[in-house]
Amino acid sequence: AQKITQTQPGMFVQEKEAVTLDCTYDTSDPSYGLFWYKQPSSGEMIFLIYQGSYDQQNATEGRYSLNFQKARKSANLVISASQLGDSAMYFCAMGLNTDKLIFGTGTRLQVFP
Amino acid sequence: GAGVSQTPSNKVTEKGKYVELRCDPISGHTALYWYRQSLGQGPEFLIYFQGTGAADDSGLPNDRFFAVRPEGSVSTLKIQRTERGDSAVYLCASSPAGGPYETQYFGPGTRLLVL
Fold it and tell me: What are phi and psi of A84, to 5 degrees?
């Protein structure tokens, strides 16, 4: 079965600290892409970071990095130096040859001062 | 505009009515996707267009749902005989050419409420 699992319904982090949001995936396809999106209360899905299954190095985009462990089928998002504006829902998603994205159920991150 | 736009932003309708939801993708993007997001869930795929044709409509829940993209740009999602269970946020996304390695850029969504 092709599936994304996010086991943390909610996470709290203090401003300026780092936080890791977990994501595991299940697929037998050798080629896939892994994505993280942020969804603030306004509802729009904002693309954060991408990792291809054949990429040798972990992806980084500013304060976001993706801890890709292929053998464990995990693609955790690390946010460094958290800001109040990071409070939102975060979704992990997988892209396969079918073109559609398969999303997890999301993690609600709350950053407190 | 630079991003994906969707209209209306909110739609309230009565059970049994017909609704149309519109998506205007990023200019030049040939791939267009529709997803549905129920409360507390991640988005679920409905349909994918490559140009004017529906390349994959396997996510449409039943024949009350239909989508078109006649000129390869704007797309309309059509729902006939709406039911209360259709209440959700309908998200549209586009990407330059489609494929599993391309980022999909999402619009703000249409919040549909069926009374």
Answer: -55, -35
